[in-house]
Design brief:
Layout: H1 2-24, E1 32-36, H2 42-50, E2 55-58, H3 61-71, E3 78-81, E4 99-103, H4 106-115, E5 121-126, H5 143-151, E6 156-162, H6 171-191, E7 198-200, H7 207-212, E8 217-220, H8 222-225
Parallel strand pairs: 1-2, 1-8, 2-3, 3-4, 4-5, 5-6, 6-7
Length: 234
């Protein structure tokens, strides 16, 4: 089922990315497609890998652990943790996630850093640029200072920032959310030029606008795999 679906949906998603890049005067090579496999069974990941997708996003620590245990770390494949992280579970991510996108609290950053063994762990700082109470991430007038605190952990490699836009159709709201992340990264890099340039923003519903506003990484699930069937890790 998933393999057949991806034969149709993956070219459509890639075409949407290419069109947005054309409008923005950018190369599609600048945008990484993260296939969000959360709540989908192993079959979805098998189909994704067979289709050449190499970046896979999971929303829950337990589900990520189970899928990594099953598939391992194939060469060239990166597992992304994109969901909210409870500080008590953060220590389980080093060695499992290849990129933790949702570091939105100093406590989580500290727990990750304490658990890292060996090479520095790639992370993104999550920023609540929409101001929604339900969204996680750094916010307030101290947001740049807070992100710079994450960059201070020697065990972590801050590759850039991530945000989640509101689920609305208002283009002004969406563009403001995405532009806010780009401007925050610019402010951070004025203090720390060694912070990476990744901007993870844009999903199935708004990836075009996100790319036009500077996104370098889009997280797409529904458009690729359909509605989530409610898979639960054992």
């Amino acid at each position: 089922m998933y393999a057949e679906r991806l034969r149709e949906t993956l070219p459509e998603v890639r075409a949407s990315i290419e069109k947005a890049c054309d409008r923005a005067g950018r190369s599609p090579d600048e945008v990484t497609l993260v296939a969000v496999t959360k709540s989908h069974p192993f079959e979805a990941i098998e189909a994704a890998l067979a289709a050449g997708l190499t970046d896979l996003g999971e929303n829950r620590v337990a589900e990520l652990e189970e899928k990594v245990e099953h598939f391992g770390h194939p060469e060239g494949v990166r597992w992304h943790m994109i969901g909210s992280i409870q500080s008590r579970k953060a220590s389980r991510l080093p060695g499992v996630a290849d990129l933790v996108q949702s570091v939105g609290r100093i406590k989580v950053a500290r727990k990750l850093a304490d658990a890292v063994e060996g090479a520095r762990m790639p992370v993104l700082a999550q920023v609540n640029t929409s101001g929604e109470d339900a969204k996680g991430g750094f916010e307030s007038e101290r947001v740049v200072e807070q992100i710079l605190e994450v960059a201070e952990f020697d065990e972590l490699r801050l590759d850039g920032l991530m945000t989640m836009a509101p689920f609305v159709d208002d283009e002004t709201v969406l563009r403001t959310t995405f532009r806010g992340l780009r401007e925050t990264l610019e402010a951070v890099r004025r203090h720390r030029p060694d912070v990476g340039t990744t901007l993870s923003m844009g999903t199935t519903n708004d990836l075009g606008m996100a790319i036009e506003e500077g996104s370098t990484m889009v997280r797409v699930g529904t458009a690729l795999f359909g509605e989530r069937p409610g898979y639960e890790p054992a």
